[in-house]
């Protein structure tokens, strides 16, 4: 079960995204894991892997399942970019253009339709 992020911790993450001081690592990890779980819940499946190293990864999007080796559809980014995407502070296109988001495979862009999280 993902760690619960309280209002104060959420405020710390949002302040950081808006240029403030970085949150504690446990708070950052909880925010990333909770948002990844929300994406996987909204789009269950195993066709696309979303990675936010070193804090978490999930598989989501219905369709063909991946079993071994590198998955064909991967979304990978850093924690700050990921949280900026899920909060609507950054668009998918902006993250791709800046090089902070890497999306490979024909189905990886389906994650964009889930962002920002409500």
From TrEMBL:
On the tree of life, the source organism's domain of life is Bacteria
Residues in Bacterial SCP orthologue domain copies? 24-117
Name of protein: Sterol carrier family protein
